[in-house]
Amino acid sequence: MSRLASYIVIGVLRGTALVAVALVAVASVIEFAGQLDDVGIASYGLRDALLFVALRIPHTLFRVLPAAALIGSLLALGNMAVHRELVVMRASGVSQYRLLGAVAAAGLVLFVVMLLLGESVAPKLGAYARTARAEALLEDVDTAAARSTFLEDGDRIIKIWRPPDAEGPGQTVRVFDLEGDTGLRAIAEGELILPSDSDVWDIFDYAATEFGETGVTARQSRYIQQDYGFSREILELSEMRADLLELPELGRLIGDLEGRGLDASRYLAAYWGRIASAVSVVLMAMLALPFVLGSLRSAGAGARMIVGLVIGLAYYTFGELSANTGEVFALDPVVAAWAPSGVLFVVTALAVVSLR
Known about the structure:
This protein is an alpha+beta fold. The protein has helices at 3-35, 46-55, 57-82, 85-91, 96-137, 232-237, 247-259, 265-293, 301-328, 333-353, and strands spanning 148-153, 156-161, 171-179, 183-193, 201-212, 215-226.
């Protein structure tokens, strides 16, 4: 990379970092204010609220980084234009497409940052923050029993939950074996412990009731092993929200749901939406250059920031609208996830072509 390209890349990254810090600070303050209503419930205190917001910072940064890339690029490139640096570059024979390539290189660095955030730091810290908050809020509340997981495989439905007064590592499992649309063939219950090296479930205090043509049969066992076809990994993933899963985990969950004929559209939308968001950060950075070389060449920093905020807000709003509309009207989740980035690509391409 040439010294000129490095100068532009560093300038864009520095501007993006400053804007990202500001946006994350504002978003964190708003999120902290939303947590204040829960402070004082059970053992959830002010320190817990601060910890929750702090652990959510990587997730917040992942969400605001596309807008920060646009605003930061506008400010950095605009500052170069004000000081006539871009004019000197152009007069020295540097083409606008070479400048665009340098800005795109900065966008690729931000793309890598988004992948690192979305695939390691943000999901893990977000999951820990959610768990810690739930445990503090539900410590002495009976509604903790409502934290349950339902799994389905053909005519079998499995409910797994942990009663609030439970002791030890196990969870309560209840298995319903259905017969047809309205019949119940058997029901079983026990304390479930999943071994770390096997998909076989260890069930203690097992009790089952079978309903047959000749009558009702009950049987009990202190300990049995059952293989219901659900791995430990899938069971753990089923208790997670899509935004708290990494892409490989989302992919495995989608494959398992589709293999059982279940609806995986929500997770598909989350999977492709995360990739599309990472791609959008490159497009946002590239979109800044046509504005700076065109309509915003002589504008002040305030005007450039307003333009960046408007475009960033429009992109975020369209993304949320596309995701919600796709879920409500059962649209293709891949199309719904890529729609905002697709529109952004078209706008960026038109803006770049207009530089000729």
